[in-house]
Write a structure and sequence with these properties.
The protein is α+β, with helices and mostly antiparallel strands. It has helices at about 1-15, 40-45, 50, 145-150, 155-170, 175-180, 210-230, 295-305; strands at about 25-35, 65-70, 80-85, 85-95, 100-105, 115-125, 125-135, 185-190, 195-205, 240-250, 255-260, 275, 280-290, 315-320, 335-340. It contains eight helices and 15 strands. It has an eight-stranded antiparallel sheet with strand order 8-13-15-14-10-11-9-12, with helices on one face. Strands 1-7-6-5-4-3-2 form a seven-stranded antiparallel sheet. It is elongated and about 70 Å long. The protein starts with a helix and ends with a strand.
Length: about 350
């Protein structure tokens, strides 16, 4: 009996003493490099709706339920998830665009106070290192047992999150915010929001100078009409667009619309028509350089579509991110190309 009592006393003493040797806080971090600009990756962490689709806790549980708080992105955004008997709450407390995001974590088995920090470290224009870190404040004395053992696999959990993110990015189209971070030469898929264009239609041969002249004349006519005649402010006029209905290499002719996206409906001038570009999923790329080499970029986009088993429409459009007539060095010309994907 005395022996049993001694063992119980030793066990109880150990229970009291062991927490002294356990860490009084937890700090775990991992990092991974992605072949994408920081802006595209930032939105996957900053938009709680995006984040909830791949994060390594509730998203990995098919039975989990999620409830979002407004706003859905940026400081103050957050959501709670019910999974495996836990009501976890994640809230953004700091959001510095394309730089870092800080979150408050509740009920993640990490003590009463825990935060998550994600930093975006561009290694060049198209590659970004993400540093993902979780840190707790001082943990209560006896809570160190449970927290210590549940946190042992925390780094593995974060890496599973990275794995899920990589897989998602392989198949998910860019949203409007992410698309702004597209770099020249990159080829991605994008959810185009749809626009209305006031345009002039042209039919020409495939001669580069003839196409260029028709585009510049049409854009000049429409811009003058919108600003001089209708007195529209520039902020209501989008970047110029040329929409190619078709290009026939056999007959060497093309039909295309050139014009400007407008926010509000306006009276059309003589020879002008309103062209709706519907919301659609498209393969996109930014061509940088002389217009004469744009077909090389389009060929690469077609190869990308074939490799990813995407069927493309015959029509496409070009959005001039800097207007050709104002670019002195043709090597600095920037044109975003959209080729719609067949549903």
């Amino acid at each position: 009996m005395r022996r049993v009592a001694q063992i119980l006393i030793l066990a109880f003493t150990a229970l009291l003493i062991v927490p002294v040797f356990l860490p009084n806080k937890i700090e775990v971090n991992t990092e991974r490099e992605f072949h994408l600009p920081a802006g595209i990756l930032f939105e996957e962490f900053n938009n709680m709706n995006n984040f909830s689709k791949w994060e390594p806790w509730a998203a990995a549980d098919s039975l989990a339920t999620q409830e979002f708080y407004s706003p859905y992105a940026g400081k103050g955004a957050g959501y709670q998830s019910q999974t495996k008997g836990k009501n976890r709450i994640l809230t953004i407390t700091e959001s510095l665009k394309n730089k870092k995001i800080r979150y408050n974590m509740e009920n993640f088995d990490l003590g009463s106070e825990a935060e998550m920090l994600v930093e975006f470290l561009p290694s060049d224009s198209v590659n970004t290192i993400i540093n993902w870190k979780i840190e707790t404040k001082k943990i209560g004395y006896f809570s160190r047992y449970y927290t210590y053992f549940t946190s042992n696999n925390l780094r593995e959990t974060l890496n599973k999150g990275f794995d899920r993110l990589e897989k998602l990015l392989e198949t998910t189209a860019l949203n409007e915010e992410q698309a702004k971070s597209l770099q020249p030469g990159m080829i991605e898929t994008e959810l185009f929001e749809g626009k209305k264009i006031i345009s002039v239609v042209n039919e020409t041969t495939l001669d580069e100078d003839e196409v260029k002249t028709a585009v510049e004349e049409s854009l000049g006519l429409i811009y003058s009409y919108l600003t001089d005649y209708l007195k529209l402010p520039q902020e209501q006029i989008g970047q110029p667009i040329t929409y190619f209905d078709f290009i026939n290499t056999a007959t060497e002719n093309a039909k295309f619309h050139s014009g400007y996206p407008i926010i509000e409906s306006v009276q059309l001038g003589e020879g002008m028509e309103l062209l709706p570009l519907p919301a659609v999923k498209a393969v996109v790329s930014i061509h940088k350089g002389n217009y004469s080499s744009i077909q090389q970029t389009i060929s690469k986009m077609n190869s990308y579509a074939k490799e990813n088993q995407l069927s493309l429409q015959n029509s496409y459009w070009e959005e001039y991110l800097n207007q050709p007539v104002r670019v002195k060095d043709s090597d600095e010309l920037l044109i975003k190309i959209y080729i719609p994907i067949k549903e």
